[in-house]
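quick one, 248 residues, struct below
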Amino acid sequence: MPTWAEAGLWGLLGGAALVIGALIAWLVAVSDTVIAGVMAFGSGVLISAVAFDLMEEAARTGGLGPTAAGFLGGAVAYLAANALLARRGAQHRKRSGGQPSEEEQEGSGSAIAVGALLDGVPESVVLGIGLLAGGAVSVPVLAAVFISNVPEGLSSAAGMKRSGRSARYVFGVWTTIAVLSGLSALLGYVALGNAPPEAIAVITAVAAGAILTMIADTMIPEAFQKTHTWTGLITSVGFLVAFAIELA
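---
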C-alpha cells in the first residue's frame, strides 16, 4: 500500500473513534459524570502525546526556538478560531448538556460542526507527518488520538441529542469529520513529503500548540463541570496510561 494511502487510513481510524463515541451516546444512556470522567481521561492521554511525542520530537529535530515559535503560533491560531466559533454557539460543543438548539441560536449547528473539525484536524495532521519521520505511524500518538476521540464524540453527541438535533445531523457531522480527518492526515503527508526536517518540526509544534490549547479551553473545563475535584486525578491516570504506552 502506498504510504500516502496509509496516512489517510490512519487518520480515518483516529476520526472513526468520534463516530464510535457518538454511536454509544445515541444508543446507551451514559451519565454525565461518566462522560466527564472519560473526557478527563482523554485529556491526560493527549497531554502525554503532546509532551513526549510531538514537542520532544519537534525540539530534537528543529531546535527549541523554532519549536517554541510554532507551538505558540498554533496555540494563538486555535484560540482565535475557537473564540470566533464560541460567539456562534459552539463554546460548549463537547458538553453532554447545554448545547444550544438551532431555534435558540441560528447557525449554532454549523458552528458546532466546524468547531469539531477544528479540534480534530491538528491531531490528524500529526499522524500523517509521523509517517514522514519513521515510515510507520506513531503508535502512542495514534492511541492518544483514538482514546481521546471516543469521549469527545460521546460527550458532544449526547449534547446534540439533548438539544434536539436529529440522528442524521449527528452522524452526518461525525462521519464527515472522520473522513476529513483521513484527508488531513493524507494531505499532511503529501504536502510535507519534500519539506526539510526543520519545517516538519515547526508544523508538528504548531499542531501540538493547537492540541494543548484545545485541551485546556474545551476538554478539561467540560470535564470539570461534572467530575470537579476528581478531574486532576482522572487526567493524571490518562497521562500515565499514555506514558506507559510510549515506554512499551
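The two ends are 26 Å apart (CA to CA).
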